[in-house]
Structure formats: structure tokens, C-alpha cells
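Handoff note, outgoing to incoming analyst
You'll be picking up this chain. Sequence as last confirmed:
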Amino acid sequence: MTDREEIAAPSNRFARAFNNPIMTGIAWVAGVLGLILSVYFYIQSEKKRDLAYYVNPAQAVVVQTGESSNLHVFFGNHEPSHELTSDVTAAQIAIWNEGNESIRPDNVLRQVVIRTIPSVPILETSIRKKSRDVVNVTLDQSHLNDGVVGIQWNILEQNDEAIIQIVYAGRPPINQIQVSGVIEGQGNIRQLRDVQQTKNVSAKPLTPKQFGTVFFIVALIMAIVGVVVGITKATSPSIPPPYVFAIMTIVLVAIGIFSILYFAAPPPIDFQ
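Most recent structure output, in case you need it:
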């Protein structure tokens, strides 16, 4: 064996090792796992404020005009009070920080308020529940006649939430409830719709992170199966070729990333 052949021999062995289907499969699985981990750690490290709210669709009409002739509702703590001629409805609104960065009063660029649309008087407000006493949620009731109630708090960390109940002179769907305000780094407050609520914790839907994690796990399994199919050179008509598994893996990873980044979790506290 010449000197040139002795030098070329290790290189050939090295090339053959990396052309081995098993090494190719390991590299493919490692690549998929690396992509999943990079997305996960990026999401975990990204700091953001994400104030969201959800209006409980189960609003209770307390008084219906025309159906209770002997029942009259008067509004006002001082004389003269005013008799209401409209329906009276109770509604609950959950507001919470979905982001991983705390929201303090200095981060509120425009006051967060609950308002009725079109504007009808809010007769009463109360805080039904809060995640922790330290959040110290308070309500500004100076503009109830205009259908506006302000919300202040000491701090809202991730998943800190308050459930606020308002009683207003109107009824859905004629009157809608909206939460508005501007948070530093976020802009407008985000509204969630069609969130299924339940008091049974075990029956709650998966959060976006859990949902995305499921897709990541399935994608990794799909990548491993594709590698096994490629290594064993399975030729059965019932088994798809390896590139099909590769495409499915990429699609599943993409769905997992989209689920985590663009879907919000349901409120962490149930309505009462």
C-alpha cells in the first residue's frame, strides 16, 4: 500500500460511515429534535406581556321588562332615583396576563376599562374572584352611568387573573361588552372567543403549549419511523416510502410551532 493509499483509506472509511443509512437516520432524528428544542427554548426565553380577556357567554337576565309587572327596578343611591325601563343583565368578564412578563401600573399606557356597547348604564360592579391577593385589583366606578368601569391592579404576573361581574341596563345580543386599553409592548388587549369553561380541572382543554408539545412528540415518532423504514428498506406496498414520513414530520412540527405561537390558552380560573 502506497503512502497515498494509506492517507486515503481513513478518509474513505469516514465517508462510508456517514453514508451509512443508520448514520443518516440518526442525523435526521437529531435534526428534528434540535429544531423542536430550539423552538421550545426560544418561546420560553421570549419575554412578552399579553393581557387577554374573555366574556362569559352565559349572561343572566335578572329582570325582563314587560314580564314582571309588579317588579320595578330603581337606579341611584340618592334621591331622586330613576326607574329602569330596560332589561337588567349580569355578566362576568375574566381578564388575565397570558404572557410571561409581569404587567405593572407603569406598563399601562391607556387605562384598562370595561365598557358596554352601545353605551348603557352599569348598575353595579364587583370582583368575584382573583388569583392572588397580591394582585390587588380595584375598580374605578366613577363613570358607571356612561357604561364604563376602570380596572387597576398592583401587578399581574403570568396567569394572574381577576373575574369581574357587572350588572348593566340592557341585554345581549343588543348590548355587547368590551375591554379596552393599551399595554406597553402589546398594544390593544386581546379578546378570546368561544372558550369552553369547566370546573373539572381534569376535563379542561389542552393549553396551546401542551397542544404543540403533542405535535412535537408525534413528529419525533414519525421521524424515527421514517428512519427505520429507510434503514430496513421496507418495500411492502402498505408502508409509505421514507420521504412521506419526512414530509409528515415537517408538517407536524410546523403545526406545533403555530399552535404555541398563535393560540392563546383558556382563562386559568373558572367562572362561578
